[in-house]
Design a protein that fits this description.
Blueprint: H1 21-24, H2 32-37, H3 74-142, H4 151-160, E1 168-175, E2 177-178, H5 182-189, E3 207-208, E4 211-214, H6 230-242, E5 246-247, E6 251-252, E7 259-268, H7 278-284, E8 285-294, H8 295-304, E9 312-318, E10 326-329, E11 340-345, E12 354-360, H9 368-445, H10 451-481, E13 490-492, H11 494-512, E14 515-520, E15 528-530, H12 532-549, E16 554-561, H13 562-571, H14 580-585, H15 607-620, E17 631-640, H16 674-684, E18 689-694, E19 698-709, E20 737-741, H17 745-757, E21 761-765, H18 768-776, E22 781-784, E23 787-790, E24 796-800, H19 812-823, H20 828-832, E25 836-841, H21 846-855, E26 860-863, H22 868-878, H23 893-901, E27 905-909, H24 913-925, E28 929-933, H25 936-942, E29 951-955, H26 963-988, E30 996-997, E31 1001-1005, H27 1010-1018, E32 1025-1028, H28 1029-1034, H29 1036-1051, E33 1057-1058
Parallel strand pairs: 14-16, 20-21, 20-24, 24-25, 25-26, 27-28, 27-29, 29-31, 31-32
Antiparallel strand pairs: 1-4, 1-8, 2-3, 5-7, 6-7, 7-8, 9-10, 9-12, 11-12, 13-15, 15-19, 16-17, 17-19, 18-19, 22-23, 30-33
Helix pairs in contact: 3-9, 6-7, 9-10, 9-24, 10-16, 11-12, 12-16, 13-15, 18-19, 23-29, 25-26
């Protein structure tokens, strides 16, 4: 039976710092002064440094900080705010009140102007009609011979056209009669000329203006002398002198006793040119046409036709004499009203001036909006004043509370520092003896022990590792809760991490017959950048839980690109989702689409979806690496067929220290913090974690992580970069052909992927007949990339022990022979090439081993879980002799480390005798010469130039002088010697190269506190690497990586004496 080469898992969360001399000359990664002067650091950094003793006595209560308000009289501020509020309220009231009254002023003005325009328009129309009558009289009475106009005609005409003059009470024509013509005129008219007021015969005047034609409404004016009235006489004089209409001042109309005015037009006996003089106009005047306007009736009729006329009070004034305006319409007295609007009236007489005044009929309403806003401002200011006053009273209480809080803060900081010191001390004090125990147990296992003694030693070693793991989990949980955990960014290979995780649990799964397998998509880059230790911790936690709760079936880990999963989900969602009731009902039915045949909680890892994923990935395989994004989002699933998670326990599954079965009689152990830590780590890595579970069927945990692409897609990662988690697989199997016989296509695909990683061309057969066809054909073609090539002869045939059922694969050789006999075919390939028959099994009992040899599997048996490195080691034993000079052979790692350390003189400095023995034993195992020192002072004495040491492993925590201080003093001595030699060489000027003393110093520590790592980084000028003591025996491969990183810069140049 072929077993895997010795390979020890990486335990603990140790960090490595591999800094060369060139790094030391650059700017430090952290500002030392700022780091040292701050008690609290950024997120992900420690809050205390155990190597610096805090001075609690000097940290008194901080002085209470007083703001500007503290020294200000708060009551004065309240009064100031109140005064400012009153001023602002007054301004706001004035503004909105002004707007309120302005609104009413605008409304009043518009209404008044509208009425004035209408009155003026109506008056203008009437004046035009009077003018037209004057032209009519001049034409048909004065210039017509004989005259065709008499009283009856005039009365009838004016009566029938009165609708054109609705504002006038009547019109009349007065003829101009000189005194010499009076007698003749009276005899012709048949009546004497009378005065207007006494209606008696008019006394003698130079001329008269008796009315000869009148409208029937004012027939009483006939024979009355219009010039007998003083106002009318002046009106007549102005009318004939100007040639325009002239108005009288207001007077009481005789019949109606209403206020009115008379409009007078001069009637000329001939056409007067516009440029005629006043004398010419007076001489040409033959009579006068007048019309009486009842102003009160006129305005009243006008207002009655307007809407809302009752809202305002209208007055019409004659303001020819501005000192004594005469009321033409409206009341004499007004009620007190603040709003008044005046509109100018133009009635066509330039001598007479009129205007209209309008007032609101009631008081203007109070400006409620202004009052509301002003009240709001006052309320707001009052509220602010109350708040300021209350705040002043509250500030006094807060200041007192702040003073007490500062005292508590100092105490809390001291407690935080004490907690960090306690964690560092506990970690160191527990790990130091445990490292000694584990180291000595490993050294004991390297000696000749009988099987019982080996079993005792391995059991003790496993218990010690379990205790270390528990300590790591508790410390990780504490760091997560305090937000002081951080992630690395180093290159690694996720396939190597999966192989390492499978190796960790291979023993238990083999013993219980559980199928454990892993599949990584070809689209996942071979080099990724992230935190491999934390990713391995998550995977190991999930796989460990699956192993713990699974008794039969399989545990399957798959890694794909998240974009491939999403594209398949979008195109074939029906193949992914299955009703929970149907899955629960089908739990007892064996399914051929899963890895082991047992139903799973989710169809994501079933063969139906796997075919879609493989087809999708094959279509995208031709994408150029240069066009791919720099970030990669991985989708990782861990599927098992265990007991599942009860529905009532699912909400608390990610809570720390919570388990699905928390009873004291539970069947499975554990602390209940593994999933909580994993979930937090996934969130820190930019992903999410979830799960599907069906009780008594199984669980499938999935999570995503965001990583950076390494290699060609990321120029910052060179091709020669050493992978933290990675391995070089041998190339000696490239071009070989293999036939995989397995009845389960999903399991067959997993086997095919591991073989293809070794460069082997693979064909698969899912039953006996297909296998016989492959073996009997003389030529077979297989698709390799985009071309078709001949498969040639098979070099190996790999058969799964449970290919078609329990132990059915053992019968494969006999079944093939029987099938060939029935078909009368010859197995040309078996007869001519004799390929190796290899059996793959999860569990092999002693009876199965004997049966396998009898059935023809005499070459080797590969025990699952499959890993490429393990398969390569097994194939090397049966196919190709191991080439010791091949650098890619994984079995040569201890020899590479031996070549690195052989003959080197190394100083180990530690105050603990057990730790010195462990470190010295580990280094001597690989050929190094070791000397020990028990203190920092002893190390300074041994490393004083000149000396023969090639490297130094120094403990950080030592009494009297710790590792940091000792290293600093060693560097000071080396610099002093180097400077002195430089001066001497400059004086001699021999031209030869000089030696610079700078021995590589590797810091050793047993704790995992982040502060220790930060201090190593801060003091890069003195510390090259941090190595955990457990590493010296448990995992020499990682020690080789740490030393190899230094070798690239220092060891190859005389191992510590750089020329």
């Amino acid at each position: 039976m072929c077993k895997e080469p010795s390979r020890h898992p990486f335990h603990g969360g140790m960090k490595y710092i591999a800094n060369s001399a060139s790094l030391e000359q650059n700017t430090p990664l952290l500002d030392a002064s700022r780091f040292a002067n701050s008690h609290l650091t950024a997120r992900g950094k420690p809050g205390a440094k155990w190597w610096e003793r805090p001075d609690f006595e000097s940290q008194g209560s901080l002085p209470s900080t007083k703001t500007k308000w503290g020294n200000f009289n708060m009551m004065s501020l309240v009064w100031l705010l109140a005064t400012a509020g009153l001023v602002v309220a007054g301004v706001v009231y004035q503004f909105f009140s002004r707007q309120h009254y302005k609104h009413y002023e605008d409304v009043l003005g518009n209404m008044c102007d509208e009425r004035a325009r209408m009155l003026q328009h109506q008056f203008a129309v009437s004046i035009n009609h009077v003018h037209a009558l004057a032209v009519l009289v001049s034409t048909f009475y004065l210039r017509a011979y004989p005259s065709v106009l008499d009283q009856d005609t005039f009365a009838e005409y004016t009566a029938r056209t009165s609708f054109e003059r609705p504002l006038m009470t009547g019109v009349a024509y007065a003829h101009r009669v000189r005194h010499a013509e009076r007698d003749a005129f009276e005899r012709m008219q048949g009546w004497t000329i009378k005065t207007m007021h006494s209606r008696e015969s008019s006394p003698a005047y130079d001329e008269y203006a008796p009315t000869i034609f009148s409208q029937e409404t004012i027939g009483y004016l006939v024979s009355l002398d219009m010039m007998s009235g003083e106002e009318d006489r002046d009106n007549i004089f102005r009318a004939r002198a100007s040639g325009k209409g002239a108005l009288t001042k207001p007077f009481r109309v005789l019949e109606s006793n209403h206020l009115g005015v008379v409009l007078t037009y001069a009637v000329y006996k001939e056409v007067i040119p516009p440029e005629a003089s006043v004398e010419q106009r007076i001489e040409a005047a033959a009579g006068y046409l007048g019309g009486a306007f009842d102003v009160e009736s006129l305005v009243e009729n006008l207002l009655s036709r307007l809407a809302r006329s009752e809202d305002i009070v209208v007055n019409v004034y004659d303001i020819t004499n501005s000192s004594e305006p005469m009321v033409m319409y409206g009341p004499e007295a007004f009620s007190e009203c603040s709003l008044l609007h005046t509109s100018t009236l133009d009635f066509g007489d330039p001598y007479r001036k009129h205007h209209m005044q309008c007032r609101l009929s009631r008081q203007v309403p109070y400006p409620t909006l202004a009052i509301g806003f002003a009240g709001g401002v006052l309320s707001f200011v009052a509220l602010i004043c109350a708040m300021v006053y209350n705040a002043h009273m509250h500030v006094k209480k807060v200041e007192e509370g702040y003073r007490k809080m500062e005292e508590l803060k100092v105490q809390a900081e001291a407690a935080d520092i004490a907690k960090s010191q306690f964690l560092a001390t506990v970690s160191h004090e527990i790990r130091t003896p445990m490292n000694g125990v584990l180291g000595m147990l490993q050294m004991l296992l390297d000696t000749q022990l009988n099987p019982a003694q080996q079993d005792f030693a391995r059991t003790a070693q496993a218990s010690g590792k379990a205790l270390i793991t528990l300590i790591n989990e508790v410390l990780d949980q504490a760091k997560i809760e305090s937000g002081r955990i951080e992630l690395e960014m180093v290159p690694f290979d996720v396939r190597a991490i999966l192989d390492d995780v499978l190796s960790l649990f291979s023993g238990k799964t083999r013993g219980e017959g559980i199928e454990l397998a892993a599949f990584v998509s070809e689209r996942v880059p071979s080099t990724l950048i992230g935190d491999p230790g934390r990713l391995r911790q998550i995977m190991a936690n999930l796989v460990g839980n699956s192993v713990k709760f699974t008794e039969r079936g399989h545990i399957f880990v798959c890694v794909h690109l998240c974009e491939d999963i999403e594209s398949v989900q979008m195109s074939g969602n029906d193949a992914l989702v299955k009703d929970a009731f149907e899955r629960s009902k089908a739990s007892s039915i064996v399914s051929s689409s899963t890895l082991s045949g047992y139903s799973a909680a989710n169809k994501r890892s079933s063969w139906d979806l796997f075919k879609l994923l493989l087809a999708n990935e094959g279509a995208k395989a031709c994408v150029s690496p240069d066009s791919q994004p720099s970030e990669v989002k991985l989708f990782i699933s861990v599927e098992d067929t265990g007991i599942g998670i009860p529905s009532q326990a699912r909400p608390r599954i990610f809570k720390p220290f919570m388990q699905a079965d928390s009873s004291t009689s539970r069947m499975h152990g554990g602390t209940g913090i593994g999933l909580s830590i994993s979930n937090c780590l996934v969130n820190l890595m930019g992903g999410q974690m979830g799960f599907d579970s069906i009780q008594n069927v199984g669980s499938t945990f999935t999570f995503t992580v965001l990583l950076r692409r390494g290699g060609l897609a990321n120029p910052s990662v060179g091709s020669n970069t050493k992978l933290c988690f990675g391995e070089t697989l041998p190339t000696k199997f490239k071009g070989m052909k293999a036939l995989v016989v397995d009845g389960r296509p999903l399991r067959s695909e997993v086997t095919k992927q591991h073989l293809q990683r070794l460069g082997i061309c693979v064909k698969t057969a899912d039953d006996w007949n297909a296998a016989v066809d492959e073996l009997s054909n003389t030529r077979n073609f297989v698709r390799v990339g985009g071309a078709s090539s001949s498969i040639g002869e098979f070099h190996m045939i790999l058969v799964d022990k449970d290919a078609w059922g329990l132990s059915t694969g053992l019968n494969f050789p006999a079944a093939v022979q029987e099938s060939m006999k029935k078909g009368k075919r010859t197995l040309s390939r078996l007869e001519t090439h004799h390929p190796k028959m290899i059996l793959m099994a999860t569990h092999m009992a002693a009876s199965d081993l004997e049966k396998a040899k009898l059935m023809g599997f005499v070459d080797t048996i590969i025990m699952k879980p499959l890993r490429a490195r393990m398969i390569a080691a097994c194939l090397e034993q049966i196919l190709v002799p191991c080439d010791n000079d091949e650098q890619g052979c994984p079995l040569e790692e201890p020899r590479n480390l031996r070549r690195l350390l052989s003959g080197r003189l190394i100083l180990v400095v530690d105050d603990n005798r057990i730790n010195r023995l462990v470190a010295a034993g580990a280094l001597k195992k690989y050929g190094a010469d070791v000397e020990c020192a028990d203190s920092g002072k002893a190390a300074i004495a041994k490393l004083h130039p000149p000396h023969r040491f090639d490297a130094c492993f120094m403990d950080i925590q030592m009494p009297e002088m710790d590792g940091f201080e000792a290293t600093m003093k060693i560097r000071e001595v080396e610099e002093s010697v180097n400077d002195k030699e430089f001066v001497d060489e400059k004086a001699i000027d021999s031209g030869e190269g000089r030696k610079r003393w700078r021995v590589p110093i590797l810091a050793m520590t047993a704790d995992v506190i982040q502060a220790t790592y930060d201090e190593c980084v801060r003091k890069t000028v003195v510390v090259e690497a941090a190595v955990n003591l457990e590493l010296l025996h448990i995992n020499m491969k990682l020690l080789e990586y740490s030393l190899q990183s230094l070798k690239d810069h220092i060891f190859e140049l005389d191992f510590g004496h750089v020329k």
